[in-house]
What does this fold into?
Amino acid sequence: MPQPHLRTVVVLAAGEGKRMKSTLPKVLHPLLGRTLLGHVLSAAAPLTADRTVVVVGHGADQVRAHLSEVAPDATPVLQAEQLGTGHAVRIALDAVPDGAGTVVVINGDVPLLRPETVGALVTAHEQAAAAATVLAAEVPDPTGLGRIVRDADGRLEQIVEERDADATQRAIREINAGIYAFDAVRLREALSKLSTDNDQGEEYLTDVFGLLRSAGEPVAVHMADDHVETLGCNDRVELATLRRLLRDRVNEAWMRTGVSLLDPATTWIDVTVALDRDAVVDQNTQLRGGTVVGEGALIGPDVTLVDTIVGPDASVVRSHAVGAEIGAGASVGPYAYLRPAARLAEKAKVGTFVEVKNSQIGTGSKVPHLTYVGDATIGEQTNIGAASVFVNYDGVNKYRTVIGSHARTGADNMFVAPVEVGDGAYTAAGSVIVDDVPAGAMGVARARQRNIEGWVVKRRAGTAAAEAALRAGDAKGAQRAGDAKGASVAPGTASDSEAIHGVTETVGGASGTGDTATE
It folds into this structure.
């Protein structure tokens, strides 16, 4: 049984990328869930290389930090002076002095490169026992790219950089994609012979092919099936083009798996996202990071999900979520904001203009509208009234609110944490709940309303309000109220049945089944 090849991957990521006009190194610019460098490393990952070396230069500390996150097993090697691609590879191989087998070299700015293409290049190279193999592509416009120059028999003669090419060579549309496979031993020998006799005064890695051919070593060309894979990135315009191309590739792949994208042109899905079949994604939607969308879920329109899990048959409309979990059959939006650690159980609802942070909302529970829920636990089948605020922060520390199951809280409530409302409890509209409400109790925390009859006519005479009050008979109403006052029960002397009746009316208005209850 043949022994597997020893493989080393070298990624060239030392360039400054001046045309990007950015303080961020070119290879760290993001593209649908990964950096340019991250895409290249992902394309090379199926090779299962014995070691991966990344040549860093400009912004070396930033690139090293990124590698520690996305490819901690990769070895960063510093190219302090950018003296050419040949020089960069030589430095990389110095970091693996015992290297043999196959060396795969990839430019760090080709994010559309597919793993299948890299694998096919390496397989062709190893099966042919070539000294060096270059990935090539035929492109509509080769401007700015190195050309593949063949001899009369169609074999590779040399690779010529555009600035060193003559008019005939510049007319060639077969280009060097910047991805190579080498025999390690023969590569090392050729690298030691590189010169800087060229327009840029640098050591060109491409000159290795001419040196090897002159020495009678076999060199080869492997054609990419799709030249789009070989496109590099030098400025923001090219980056935007690559982003659109990758978007189209990703979207097409998902649609072919049974996901409905209603407007692919306005749907942006990171390569790190996962969707189940029969999910429906409406227009103007962005799915980012580690987002997962379950079977039959409806997402959009106008939704952004970042690192969010959406359960089967859930719906999210015109909302933004980061680090949230949305249970099966749950409903979010429109215009909701789920912040990190927002957890909605099965068939829970978070409605219009609701913000949820670090909170659990139980099965079937509803927070329909105009509410902030922060640092809270809400049980099952509970309804939170409109315009409620979970007051969780005292300026120094944050505290938790617990609302039980089957509870009904009134509109315009404030829950001043730490506080607990028990199972089956109610709270009256307009209450500021500062003490625990026992299970099954009614919490009322507000002052009794007092009407001062005739106040507007007396204190705002001549205003439109006073005139309206007069037209409505406010003055006569005030007189009648005054006449009746003497016959009313004095404050504090109401019977128990009357007091209970008054609270019962409050309950009906605040937490009953009418509109004020806000279900």
Q: What stands out?
A: The two ends are 70 Å apart (CA to CA). DSSP finds twelve helices and 39 strands in the chain.
